[in-house]
Each structure stands twice: as structure tokens, then as C-alpha cells.
Design a protein that fits this description.
The complex is a heterodimer of chains A (464) and B (325). Helix content of chain A is 52%, strand content 6%. Chain A has 17 helices and eight strands. In chain A, the strands form two sheets. Chain A has a six-stranded mixed sheet with strand order 5-4-3-6-8-7, with helices on both faces. Chain A is globular and about 85 Å long. In chain B, helix 2 packs across helix 9 and helix 7 packs across helix 11. Chain B is globular and about 60 Å long. With 325 residues, chain B is an alpha/beta fold. Classes of the chains: A alpha/beta (464), B alpha/beta (325). Chain B: Keywords: ATP-binding, Cytoplasm, Nucleotide-binding, RNA-binding, Transferase, tRNA processing, tRNA-binding.
């Protein structure tokens, strides 16, 4: 989400050319200059879809579209993603994660429009149809770590509120949660622990990734406490492309497919990504065309691998606008995990009958979810990580060793402080929602060990 | 770490890589792909040393490809000829002129600087195999280092080349083919190779190819160097990711076959080299470059670059020849 918010228009978005010549390059440069001047992707040619004479907008793939068709194109992708992956059922309440950036702003707008349309259908059918899904909005307030003046932050958050309340049919609720609340319900204690934990992380990239983990934890907490069935993120193709490369660079090739699918049910509350096929440039442009208000003053400056990857991809995009889609498509060909689809019994009962066979086929193929997930980031463990975990379990002396072994190699390297004392202190600061799970496993583990020891003692007695 | 200890650690790491991956067996005849550059020169030197020290019992040869680039390849081949004498390894040189009837100088005259790397990469790969067959060797080793492999992982993600992505981290490729290729430097950093060559005062040629003067500075290579500065282990992390990628079983992979004209391995009816050569000989050098209309199915195994618009290709061009797996 942060990556998506940080994206910006990068000049001309012409589709790829099969060949180039000097004159074509000159025309291209002129078009690029003109596009840069108006600050948007635009070319003066007819809409490729309806033939209208309005100023056309170029989308990846080279097709020029007028404003209306461009918008319909993006909305169509959103709706297709939602329906063909059964992301939202009529009985669901959906929590939309809103950061203030263009991508989540578009997601907010589109899910709102889908809901309005569903309500109209429901009204017309005299309540005989299925109920309409609910929508709530969540904003994670990370201002405690922000170096900007307090009043500026307050104004920005007020903007966030007004954007949400400005939607014609009110959303169910607006939830603004402070990031430190995942540490403790007491404000000062939570803040202290958050600051202390973040300060212990020496690696810039590690700090960023740690905050990303906390953000997801915060969203999960909001959703669980308020009865939401789904969490919808505004992650777009551009942000996902950045994530694909970042994860590759961090050695997370095994787990990366988990993060790039439409559906992710490894969390308590399933997470869905309906904007996965849309580019940040397109979403930013749509916000401009539709005068959708965004709020990006809360974005934090970024150092480290994630921002290096983002600038690399930005550079590639300038040369070939389809590059981001290519990266996402490559990742799509990697094997997803069993939790990358809905598999609970009866989940697809609400689907129109023509769609049900597709999902039922998957249901019958379903295997048990057996992945071990990283304590912090939720990444599935690779074989070498599993081996490390198994060997640690056998010889673990302290709880700290189990905690450490339940972190993936990437988190171990870039987040955990070096040194055992520091490590112990770091884990003592972490949210109970994370370490509590470990404590439960640890307790059952030691219980099992006690039983084994009793058995050995009995065996010994018999021997005597 | 002092110089002597660096030598020991460097050589032992490569030895461990060779042993753990069972790259060779006693009696193997091994051709070292030798370009005269630092990677292949260090590889020839280290392999020769380890062969003596650890008694691999290998017959080692130097195998060079002469692309026919005036002012560049002829000078680098002089370096390899000196290596032949210094290391006592027999040298075989095979040229594009002999194999294809065209030198790179001729090819560049025909098509210009753009795209000439496609020809060179495809031709060199096949030339290396043909030279190895002439020497009757069991294995080919190349000097691809960790930086090269990490770069290839990234490039294959950027290009959407899932077939290559699934195998570009293999330390041995072509095991089911006539002559497997090995990369003993898979886990060795480029800067360590440079340092080793420098301290050992090894004789190597370091000028970049004159027909792709900016190839070394491709976006991907630049990105990897930035990464390495920020987090040195990123290169090995990329390789580890590449090793851990699991390709979805629903993804269709190209089928292996042979070229009906020259018998070389290919997933198409004609291998890429024959397609390119046919274009050259018919005065249509652009044939086989860029988007191919009417050709269905996966890429040819010989194809160096994915079919992409010309404009985007230059930025993704890696170091000369080294992205060709």
C-alpha cells in the first residue's frame, strides 16, 4: 500500500512499439513532452473503444481510451476480480484498508459503487434476493512514528475522515486505529513498546517490513473486533511488482507467491486484492479524472531495498509501460499455496449456479493447509526453514529459541536484533497476538515433553 | 583477512561447491569456456590448481569462441593463448566464420548495432557446444559467477520468461543432453574473482565488447550493484529465491526437440541459430528478431532474448554473453 501510494505518473505511457525509427522516435518524444506538460497520460487521438472525440487516455497495451471508457475499463477489472474469485459474499462485511493514496481511494470508490448497485437490485426485488454485503473502512494511524507536526497530522486524518463520510451512502463505520494499539490497550505503554521495538531494528529495510507486518496485524485486529469477514486491500499491479522483486531480493522466493494472489486466507480474516490487475499510474489518473480526493501527506520517506526496487521499476516502466504487468504475470506462474483460495465448506453456496462448478472443482482438490508461517510476516516456511525449526524444537532450551526459529530467514536477518539479550528483550516487546500463538504451541510442546519423560521414568521402574 | 588466507578461503569455497554438487567424476574430460576475461581466466587457473591439489583426475581443455570482432576478440584470444602456455591446458578455438560463414563484423554491417547481441549470444552458445563435441569432452564449465546468476534471475522475472526462470539457478544444466554445462562459480561474488585475479597477477583481458559498449551498464546490472552496496548478501538471496521458486503445474513449458536442419536442441522445428542464419543468408537479417507472427508455443531453447520491443531490449541487456544460459 505504501508503495502504491508512493507511485506517481512517470510521463508518457505509450504502449510498446514493435519497431522504431528516427521519425517515430521524434513523434514519440513530442508526445512525451506534451504528456509531461499536462502532467497526465494523454494523447490526442480517438478512443479505441467508442470512437469518441474526447481527449484520449493511453493505457498499457497501447489502446487509447476516452475518460469514460478508461474508467469503465478499470471498474470492469475490479468487478471481474471480485466476482470471479468470490471475494465478497452477500452475507459478508468487508473492511476496506484505506491509506489515503490513489489505489485504496479507487478501491473505496469501486466497492462503494458495487454496494450501491447491489442495494438498488435488492430494493427492486422486494427483499427476495440475497442481502447486500456491508462495507467498513479502516485507516491505520502511524503518526506516532511520523516526524511531521502534530497539527498537520491531525488535518490529514481529518481529510481521511471527510473523504469517507463524503460517500453518498454512508459506509457502515470508519475505524481509525493507532498502530501502537496492537502492542497494548494502554496508550502510553503501547507507544513506548512500539518505539522501543522499532529502534532496536538496525536495518532500514527491516524496519519498513516490520511496520508492514504491524499494519496487517492492526487491520486483522480491527476486523476481528468489529465482526468483519474480509479485509480488502488496494494493492495494485505496480505495488505487487515491487513486492515481487523485493521478496526475490530478500531470498523469499518460496513464499512470494502467497502474497500476489487475489485471495489470501492464511490470516484469521481473509485478505483480498481486487485491484491486482490495475497499474498505479492508471489509478492515479482516474483519481484526477474523477476528482477523487486523496491524502498522501502521511507517507513516510523510504530508504532501503524496497525503495531501491521501486525506483528500479519506475525506470523500467518509463521504458516499457507493460513491464509491471509482465512481472506480476511471471509471479502468477509460480505455484500458489493452499490458502490462496477459499475452501471452507459451503463457502460458494451463494454463487450464481453457472459459476459454482469452477469452485467446486477446486474444493474437491483441496488438501489440508499444512504450511508453517513466519511469526511476524506470515510467510510460509521453505524446506530449509522447516528443517531449522525441527532441529531447534528438539534442542530448544528457552522460549526465545522457539520464537527465533519461528521467524523466516528474511525476518531473522533484517528485523531481529543481533545478540541473545537484545533478542529476548525484543520479543518481550512484541504484540501478544504474535507471541501468544507461540506460547500456546510452546506449552503444548512442553506438555508433550513431560509426558515423554514420565513414560521413560515408568519404563525405568519396570526395568528395576 | 590476509592475502594468503583469502586465497585459501576462495579456493576452498569453490572446491566445496564442486564436491557438494558432484560436478565432476574422475576421468572426466572438461572444457573450460575461455573468453580471456577475468571470470574464465580465474576459473581456468583455480580449476587447474584444484585438479592437482584434490586429485579430481580431470583432463582439462580451454575452449574459445572466435566471434570475429576485430580489435576485441583477436586481442582477447591472444590472452587465452598465453593462458594455454602458462597453465599447460590445450586450447581449441572455434570461430563463427568456420561454423556459420559470418563474422560478427559482417553481421553488424548487415543489421547495425541494434540486436547484434542476439545473434552473438545464440551463435556462441551453439558454437561452444559444437567445440565441446569436437574435443569429445564430458562437461563444459563456464565462469558465470553469483552476480551473473542473480542478474539472470531478475531478468527472467522482468521478461516473464518462466521457462528460463525455472532453470537459471541450476548449477548444472543440460544433464539430459549430450554435454552438460557446469558453473563452479555459482556462489562466488564477482568482486572476489576480481580481487583474486589482481592479487595472483593473472593475465586477463578486460576490455568490453566494442559492439555492445553499454551492455555492461544495463539497468539490471546497475540495480544489482546498488543492491550489493546496500546489502551484500542480496546477491545470494536472489539466487536462493531463484532456487526456491516452484513453477505452477498449470504453466505450459516448452517441449524439447531437435532442429530438423542441424540437429541442435530446440523447441521449434528450426533452432534459433538456423533461423537467424537463414535470415542473414537471404539478406533478411531481421528475420527471427522481434515478434514472430504465426509461431505458436514456447520460446526456442536457444533464444537469448525474449521477444520484446526493440526499445526495451537494450536496457535489459546484461553483460556481454553472460546472461545467456
Amino acid at each position: 500500500m505504501a508503495a502504491a501510494a508512493a507511485s506517481s505518473c512517470g510521463g508518457a505511457g505509450c504502449g510498446p512499439h514493435c519497431s522504431s525509427s528516427a521519425s517515430a522516435a521524434a513523434v514519440e518524444d513530442a508526445a512525451a513532452a506534451a504528456a509531461e506538460k499536462v502532467g497526465r497520460l494523454s494523447l490526442s487521438r480517438e478512443c479505441g473503444k467508442c470512437g469518441g472525440g474526447a481527449a484520449a487516455v493511453a493505457v498499457a497495451g497501447g489502446l487509447g481510451l476516452c475518460g469514460e471508457c478508461f474508467r469503465a475499463n478499470l471498474l470492469g477489472k475490479f468487478k471481474l476480480a471480485v466476482t470471479s474469485n468470490a471475494m465478497v459474499r452477500p452475507t459478508d462485511s468487508v473492511l476496506l484498508a484505506f491509506s489515503g493514496g490513489p489505489a485504496s481511494r479507487v478501491a473505496l470508490q469501486f466497492i462503494h459503487e458495487m454496494r450501491c448497485k447491489a442495494i438498488e437490485s435488492w430494493d427492486v426485488s422486494n427483499s427476495q434476493a440475497l442481502p447486500v454485503f456491508g462495507v467498513g473502512v479502516a485507516f491505520v494511524d502511524e503518526s506516532v512514528l511520523c516526524s511531521k507536526p502534530r497539527d498537520e497530522i491531525e488535518m490529514a486524518i481529518e481529510d481521511i475522515r471527510s473523504i469517507v463520510s463524503s460517500l453518498s451512502t454512508g459506509v457502515k463505520a470508519m475505524h481509525i486505529a493507532r498502530l501502537e494499539d496492537v502492542f497494548s490497550t494502554e496508550s502510553e505503554d503501547g507507544e513506548r513498546r512500539l518505539r522501543e521495538a522499532v529502534d532496536m531494528i538496525g536495518d532500514d529495510t527491516g524496519r519498513e517490513d516490520f511496520l508492514r507486518c504491524l499494519r496487517m496485524l492492526s487491520l486483522q485486529k480491527i476486523a476481528m473486533e468489529n465482526g468483519y469477514a474480509k479485509i480488502m486491500l488496494g494493492s495494485c499491479a505496480s505495488a505487487i511488482a515491487c513486492h515481487v522483486l523485493s521478496a526475490t531480493v530478500k531470498g523469499q522466493g518460496y513464499s512470494l507467491p502467497a502474497d500476489v494472489q487475489y485471495v489470501d486466507t492464511r490470516w484469521e480474516i481473509p485478505v483480498v486484492l481486487p485491484l491486482r490487475d490495475c497499474l498505479a499510474q492508471e489509478l492515479t489518473l482516474l483519481c484526477e479524472l474523477d476528482s477523487l480526493k486523496t491524502q498522501q501527506h502521511l507517507d513516510r520517506p523510504s530508504n532501503g531495498i524496497n525503495s531501491l526496487v521501486a525506483s528500479f521499476i519506475k525506470r523500467l516502466r518509463e521504458e516499457n509501460p507493460s513491464r509491471e504487468h509482465t512481472i506480476v504475470r511471471t509471479a502468477q506462474k509460480l505455484k500458489p499455496f493452499s490458502f490462496n483460495k477459499f475452501s471452507a465448506d459451503g463457502y460458494h453456496d451463494f454463487l450464481p449456479s453457472r459459476l459454482r462448478p469452477k469452485f467446486q472443482k477446486f474444493d474437491s482438490d483441496e488438501s489440508t493447509f499444512s504450511e508453517i508461517l513466519c511469526l511476524m510476516c506470515g510467510s510460509p516456511f521453505s524446506e530449509s526453514e522447516l528443517q531449522n525449526l525441527e532441529s531447534t524444537k528438539h534442542k530448544a532450551q528457552k522460549k526465545i529459541d522457539l520464537y527465533t526459529a519461528h521467524c523466516c530467514q528474511s525476518c531473522y536477518f533484517q528485523i531481529l536484533p543481533a545478540g541473545e539479550n537484545l533478542n529476548e528483550h525484543f520479543f518481550s516487546l512484541l504484540p501478544k497476538l504474535w507471541t501468544g500463538k507461540m506460547d500456546t504451541i510452546s506449552d503444548s510442546h512442553s506438555l508433550l515433553r513431560d509426558q515423554i519423560e514420565e513414560y521413560l521414568l515408568e519404563e525405568n521402574d519396570d526395568g528395576n | 583477512i590476509c592475502r594468503e588466507c583469502f586465497y585459501i578461503v576462495f579456493e576452498d569455497e569453490i572446491h566445496q561447491t564442486i564436491v557438494e554438487n558432484n560436478l565432476f567424476k574422475p576421468g572426466d574430460r572438461v572444457a573450460i569456456g575461455a573468453s580471456g576475461g577475468k571470470d574464465s581466466t580465474v576459473l581456468a587457473y583455480v580449476l587447474s590448481e584444484l585438479n592437482h591439489r584434490h586429485k579430481y583426475c580431470l583432463d582439462l581443455f580451454l575452449l574459445s569462441v572466435d566471434e570475429g570482432i576485430t580489435g576485441y576478440r583477436d586481442d582477447s584470444l591472444e590472452t587465452v593463448k598465453r593462458n594455454e602456455i602458462q597453465y599447460g591446458l590445450p586450447l581449441k578455438i572455434i570461430s563463427y566464420k568456420d561454423l556459420y560463414g559470418w563474422t560478427m563484423d559482417d553481421i553488424v554491417k548487415a543489421i547495425g548495432l541494434k540486436n547484434n547481441c542476439t545473434f552473438c549470444g545464440v551463435f556462441r552458445r551453439q558454437a561452444l557446444d559444437r567445440g565441446a563435441a569436437l574435443l569429445k569432452v564430458d562437461k563444459i564449465v563456464t565462469g558465470h559467477n553469483a552476480d551473473d546468476i542473480a542478474e539472470t534471475v531478475l531478468l527472467n522475472i522482468l521478461r516473464g520468461d518462466i521457462a528460463r526462470l525455472s532453470r537459471c539457478t541450476f548449477i548444472t544444466t543440460g544433464e539430459d543432453g549430450p554435454i552438460p554445462r557446469c558453473k563452479p562459480f555459482k556462489y562466488t561474488y564477482e568482486k572476489e574473482i576480481v580481487m583474486y585475479a589482481y592479487f595472483k597477477k593473472l593475465d586477463y583481458f578486460s576490455t568490453e565488447c566494442i559492439y555492445s559498449p553499454n551492455a555492461y551498464r544495463g539497468f539490471a546490472r546497475e540495480f544489482i550493484k546498488d543492491l550489493e552496496r546496500m546489502r551484500p548478501r542480496a546477491i545470494l538471496d536472489i539466487i536462493k529465491s531463484g532456487e526456491n521458486f516452484r513453477i505452477s503445474t498449470t504453466t505450459r513449458m516448452p517441449e524439447q526437440g531437435t532442429c530438423e536442419r542441424c540437429g541442435y536442441i530446440s523447441s521449434q522445428k528450426l533452432c534459433k541459430a538456423c533461423v537467424l542464419l537463414d535470415g542473414l543468408n537471404r539478406g533478411l537479417p531481421k528475420l527471427g528478431i522481434g515478434r514472430t507472427k504465426g509461431v505458436a508455443g514456447g520460446d526456442s531453447d536457444c533464444e537469448q532474448q525474449a521477444k520484446r520491443p526493440e526499445r526495451s531490449r537494450s536496457s535489459l541487456q546484461g553483460k556481454h554473453g553472460n546472461v545467456d544460459f
